[in-house]
Amino acid sequence: MTGIRLTLTAMAATALTLTAAPAALAAEAGITDEVTMTLGKDGTLHVVEKITGASGGLKRTFITRTRYDDANDRLYQIANVKGGTLSGDVLTVTGETVEYDVKGAVTTSGGVEELRWFAVNGWNQQVAKATVKVSGPGQVQNLSCFAGELTSAIGCTSASMDHSATQADFEQEAIPAGQALTVVVGYPKGSSGGAPILERRFSLAAAFTLDTVTGGALAGLLVLLLGGVALIYWTRGRDARVAGHEGGAVDPVQNGHFSPPDGVRPGQIGTLVDEQADVVDVTATIVDLAVRGYLRIDEQPRQAYDAPDWMLVRNPNAPVHDLLPYEKALYDAIFDGRDAVLLSQLSGSFVSHLGKVRDALYADVVRQGWFARRPDTERTRWTTIGVILIGVGLIATAALAWLTTYGLLGLALVIAGGALAVGGQYMPAKTAKGSAALAHTMGFRQYLFSGELGDVPEQHRVELFSRYLPYAVIFDGVEHWARVVASVTGNGHQADNLYWYHGPAEWDLSKFAGSMRTFTTTTSGAISATRQFRTL
């Protein structure tokens, strides 16, 4: 019995082996793909595939983009899919027959219209055998096929046409998963009217092509845009012209009294000259308030390595109501309810007030009739327009570079926007009255640096030349004029202090020039450290 059982078991094992072997071979052999392609009159290729022998989920990845030339890619569009689901380039087969249309598979080369399509490609299973039948709107002029990788030059198993040259037949065996069978069939030119679908491939060299057309267009656009910027400045940004006799030297001493040009204050002159309310104007105004008796500057004693500091002391009897709006705003910013304050403490308390000082200074020069519009507003307007134009130019450059070869034209907008943004700083224009005041101011500056004391009585020189000092701060001549102040006294002897500036013990007027230079530098630094004046 035992021998019979062993014999039956061996026979069963042999039978199972013989049964499983064909199945394994079939699985290893792969699918069979019978492809029928028909090229229509409109250049659309209709494809029908009959697939047998598939095991498991069958998918195919179409080739929809290939390189056409140095500048373009060739696209193949798949549509009207039946017997499967297309997601992107991946087809999931749901039946034994698949149909779809291809556009862009035809191109004209010489006198032949060439159909090229990857009849079999991208299957996730091996194709044991593939047959392809191609018919079109004319007689076959030539045919070829390639098997293997997409760039393979190896011919397929067989390629032929029927006796009437209206159908081409191709065959290939054992196509590994992922590889392709590419068929090429030539028809007479104009048979289907099809054309390749091309998409320009992006490259910086191509996007910014410089040739006769783009170079000429760029030059013309630059001339037009930069000419427009120049025209805007010519019509809107130039100061009004004044008669020549408005300039020349000015003597600010009339009958022994100081009389600045047009009666203007140092802060006003500073804003008039450079069209900006900046730290120098505020520093000069602080010195001017001291010289005119609204406050006193006391230099603090210090050791060798201590930072210099000054106490600003309010004069309780000063007629504060006589101050101009910007002077009153600055006076309030300095003291803020205090009788005295150290200069080193101002950088913190100034923050909430200096915006008002700047606004008041700009409003003042407009109120004086020197500018038709606030200089800061005018600068901001044109600079903002320039920045917007730069942004538009960058967007235009990116769009033109991506879609065309005219990216250089967008750069013209960027350049023009940059010119307008920079030129916006020079757009504030003085009126005729402002130009006349500036001419007087330059004459006063010439007098200030001439070094001539004139006919000023010696007993009045300290007071009068002190009055000049704030204007010297504006004109960056503080050290020169401080030495002039320190060199004269009422009785011919060196003084210990000025009526508006007091030094520490053992300090005398001979040290005034150095003290004043350090004071103006430190004050400007304290002001510029605050938020409103940081960028000036």
Describe this structure in words.
- This protein is α+β, with helices and mostly antiparallel strands and 536 residues long.
- The chain is built from 14 helices and 23 strands.
- The chain has helices spanning 2-29, 204-207, 212-237, 266-274, 279-291, 325-335, 346-349, 354-367, 375-403, 407-423, 432-448, 461-474, 478-486, 512-528, and strands at residues 31-39, 45-52, 59-61, 65-67, 72-75, 77-82, 84-87, 90-93, 97-103, 106-109, 112-121, 127-135, 142-148, 158-161, 167-175, 180-188, 197-200, 253-254, 257-258, 295-299, 310-314, 340-342, 501-502.
- The strands form 6 sheets. Strands 6-9-2-1-12-15-14 form a 7-stranded mixed beta sheet, with no helix packed on it.
- The chain is rod-shaped.
Brief overview, please?
This protein is α+β, with helices and mostly antiparallel strands.
